[in-house]
């Protein structure tokens, strides 16, 4: 569930024009963004354990670069969501974490844009926690 956002607006976008079956539930959370946008979502962890966090995002000709934070700490490298055409990114692993049983905070912060892009927006499809040994 969406906890907070600033510097941007959000809405669910039907991805039918680009091949609905490529996105989970056929839609994405579209974030129309300026340069100082951040969006924070709840990441429920039903049972404590070690998990790899995989993000499923959307890349387009007019999307920006984002940095992901887990409970306020940056994870992984900034992700450039520019591509010449609209497409799902597939799984982007951002790290493996020991997580407690609670709802953690997953924040997406706009950190710039590709020189070929003219915008800072981005799209979130879904994320998954993959149990690790």
What does it look like?
The protein has 133 residues and is mostly beta strands. The protein has no helices and 8 strands. It has strands spanning 2-14, 27-44, 49-59, 64-70, 73-80, 87-99, 103-113, 122-131. Strands 1, 2, 3, 4, 5, 6, 7 and 8 form an 8-stranded antiparallel β-sheet that branches. The mean pLDDT is 93.
Chart the SSEs and their pairings.
Layout: E1 2-14, E2 27-44, E3 49-59, E4 64-70, E5 73-80, E6 87-99, E7 103-113, E8 122-131
Antiparallel strand pairs: 1-2, 2-7, 2-8, 3-6, 3-8, 4-5, 4-7
Give a short overview:
The chain is mostly beta strands and 133 residues long. Helix content is 0%, strand content 68%. The protein is built from no helices and 8 strands.
Number of helices: 0
Largest pleated sheet: 8 strands, antiparallel
The counted number of beta strands is: 8
| Radius of gyration from the alpha-carbon trace, in angstroms | 14 Å
Helix content: under 10%
Gap from first CA to last CA: 28 Å
What letter string, H or E per element, gives the SSE order? Answer: EEEEEEEE
Q: List low-confidence stretches.
A: none
**Structure classification:** mainly beta
Keyword list:
133 residues, mainly beta, eight-stranded antiparallel sheet, 0% helix, globular
